[in-house]
Amino acid sequence: MSDPITTAAKWLAAQQEPPQPIILILRDRFSLTGSQAAVACTKANEYRKEKAGRSCEDRAGH
């Protein structure tokens, strides 16, 4: 099972429009501390960038 930070990050990365205020929402929804929620936001951005990179490669025919 994933740790709560990773779970929160994956959930956030999958959101079309990230909810606001995101730190408070992550804290409540995933029982995170403020620091953990901030880490989840960073991870979510990394997941989005990875997904965008793969998407560009797919369109380029790689």
Mean pLDDT: 91
Proportion of beta-strand residues: under 5%
Summarize the main sheet. none
Please bin the fraction of helical residues: over 70%
Derived from helix and strand composition plus strand pairing, the structural class reads: mainly alpha
N-to-C terminal Cα separation, in Å? 32 Å
The value of Rg in angstroms is 13 Å
The count of β-strands is: 0
The arrangement of helices and strands along the chain is HHH
Count of helical stretches:
3
User: What ranges have pLDDT less than 50 throughout 5 or more consecutive residues?
Assistant: none
**Overall body shape:** elongated
Secondary structure elements and pairings:
Blueprint: H1 4-14, H2 22-30, H3 34-60
Describe this structure in words.
By secondary structure, this protein is an all-alpha fold. Helix content is 76%, strand content 0%. The protein has 3 helices and no strands. The protein has helices spanning 4-14, 22-30, 34-60. α1 (4-14) crosses α3 (34-60) and α2 (22-30) packs across α3 (34-60). It is elongated and about 40 Å long. The model has no long low-confidence stretch (mean pLDDT 91).
What is the compact description of this entry?
This protein has 3 helices and no strands. The chain has 62 residues and is mainly alpha-helical.
Task: Spell out the key features of this protein.
62 residues, 3 helices, mainly alpha
